Prior knowledge:
Blueprint: E1 23-28, H1 36-44, E2 52-59, H2 64-76, E3 81-89, H3 90-94, H4 99-113
Parallel strand pairs: 1-2, 2-3
This protein binds flavin mononucleotide (FMN).
Amino acid sequence: MAAFGMRAAIRPAQTDLAGVDFLVVATPVWSRKVPPYINEYLALVSNARGKPFSVLVEMRGSGAEKAVAVVRKSLEAKGMRFVSSASTLESEVDAGQFGPAIEEFARTIVEIAAPIA
Ligand SMILES: Cc1cc2nc3c(=O)[nH]c(=O)nc-3n(C[C@H](O)[C@H](O)[C@H](O)COP(=O)(O)O)c2cc1C
């Protein structure tokens, strides 16, 4: 299903972004794309025009760029503004070695979501 970009039902989630300032999509990489339940979430996102978003993907070894591109395409089609992306390796996450990459990713978000006056 991931390979074909298909959707699968998800439990109720906050998909109306009317009261949301910044969206971070965090997803595993499946088939160099994203899981069907992520496709479902992305399809349901509403009231998103003009809002910024970032993408964090976790993978075993390859496909991060393509997975980020899937998320970007879907949200940019709704008028959202891409800010940044980052990827982690499952092995590094399991070993607790994801700190620096996530800190850098977080910095790119804070710059937009909570800029220093
Ligand atoms: C159906 C399926 C497809 C996957 N496809 C990829 C892939 O294309 N590239 C990759 O690096 N890892 C792939 N993986 C591995 C996952 O991205 C990796 O295990 C990830 O860390 C899972 O995150 P989670 O534990 O949050 O679900 C796949 C895993 C599954 C279950």
